[in-house]
């Protein structure tokens, strides 16, 4: 089973985990960790402690923003454990797609999952305007 560690600034990761669990159920393979300004334990240590419990195989570390402190801190884990996968810019489609894969995700599958999660970002105003201008009712 693929294991997902969501890591973010503030409580974004907890909200994302909760929402994903509402949609796909809670299989116990999604974990949420947070970094706060006045944190007791740095995010890197939180992730390392969790990895010791769940192992390193089929683990996907998802962070909120590339170049942010959370992502930067976890880059060290990626270097130390190349079997772990680190992705920045997490969103709900990405979490659901990884969580619902039944087995190990190969690089081609991961590229498709990443592209699909990027395509989940839609400018609805532009979409509606385009549909109205061509006279269609269906999206």
Structure, explained:
By secondary structure, this protein is α/β, with parallel strands linked by helices. It is built from 6 helices and 4 strands. It has helices at 12-24, 43-54, 69-80, 92-99, 107-119, 124-133; strands at 3-9, 30-35, 59-63, 85-88. The chain has a 4-stranded parallel beta sheet with strand order 2-1-3-4, sandwiched between helices. β1 (3-9), α1 and β2 form a beta-alpha-beta unit. α2 crosses α3 and α4 (92-99) packs antiparallel against α5. The termini are far apart. The mean pLDDT is 92.
Class from helix and strand fractions: alpha/beta
Dominant shape: globular
- Report the biggest beta sheet as strand number plus sense, adding barrel if it closes: 4 strands, parallel
Radius of gyration: 17 Å
Look at the structure and give the mean pLDDT. Answer: 92
Q: Into which percent range does the helicity of residues fall? A: 40-55%
Number of extended strands: 4
Instruction: Measure the end-to-end span.
Output: 35 Å
Low-confidence stretches: none
């Amino acid at each position: 089973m693929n294991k997902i560690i969501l890591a973010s600034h503030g409580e974004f990761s907890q909200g994302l985990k909760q929402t994903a669990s509402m949609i796909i159920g809670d299989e116990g393979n999604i974990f949420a960790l947070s970094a706060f300004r006045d944190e007791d334990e740095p995010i890197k240590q939180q992730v390392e402690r969790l990895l010791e419990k769940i192992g390193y195989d089929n683990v996907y570390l998802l962070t909120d923003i590339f170049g942010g402190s959370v992502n930067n801190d976890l880059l060290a884990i990626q270097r130390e454990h190349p079997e772990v996968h680190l992705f920045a810019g997490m969103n709900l489609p990405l979490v659901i797609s990884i969580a619902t894969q039944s087995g190990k995700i190969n690089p081609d599958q991961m590229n498709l999952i990443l592209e699909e999660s990027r395509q989940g970002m839609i400018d609805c105003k532009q979409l509606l305007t385009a549909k109205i201008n061509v006279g269609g009712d269906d999206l």
